[in-house]
Amino acid sequence: MNSATLVASLIVAALVAVLITLVIQLMMRGWRRRGERQAEIIGALPDVPDELGSAMITTRGVYCGCTMAPNWNERITAGDLGYRSKAVLSRHPEGILLQRIRARPIWIPQDSVTAVRIERGIAGKVATRVGVLAIRWRLPSGAEIDTGFRASNRSEYDRWLEAEQEGAA
């Protein structure tokens, strides 16, 4: 390889590195701006009550994220709602508690729940066969969101659907 070819190769490599850096910075800026826009819409999440009744159902699995209802692929990036993590989902008489690892718990009051259903996917998390447990609920700000949870044992979804039907009756 002669020196002219080497110099041209180094220039091209530097341009590609700059281009990749620029694209990553633009993606990060878009993520932050989306989070700021959504934070205004979402407002403050409900606080977990000091006292809860005993859990009727407890399921271990993965918190998949939240999306703006009814758009299953419009992921919420505000706060720590956009990050997947291992979690425990439990149903109490007062509502649903989602305890996530390295993130604040999400409390869904019973009167805010509008639907509990099984979806094929949510926000880029697509599961084969049984899918993801999606909880649609209304925030204090009035916005409606879907919270996705993929259980380690998918057969537990039936218990969640039954509990929702009993709660609605």
Give an account of the 3D structure.
Pfam families: bPH_11. The chain crosses the membrane at residues 6-28. This is Transporter. The protein is α+β, with helices and mostly antiparallel strands and 169 residues long. The chain is 31% helix and 33% strand. The chain has two helices and nine strands. It has helices at residues 3-42, 157-168; strands at 57-68, 85-92, 95-100, 106-109, 113-119, 121-122, 125-126, 132-138, 144-151. It has a seven-stranded antiparallel beta sheet with strand order 4-3-2-1-9-8-5, covered by helices on one side. The mean pLDDT is 86.
How would you concisely characterize the structure shown here?
The protein has 169 residues and is α+β, with helices and mostly antiparallel strands. Helices cover 31% and strands 33% of the residues. The chain has a seven-stranded antiparallel beta sheet with strand order 4-3-2-1-9-8-5, covered by helices on one side. It has a two-stranded antiparallel ribbon with strand order 6-7.
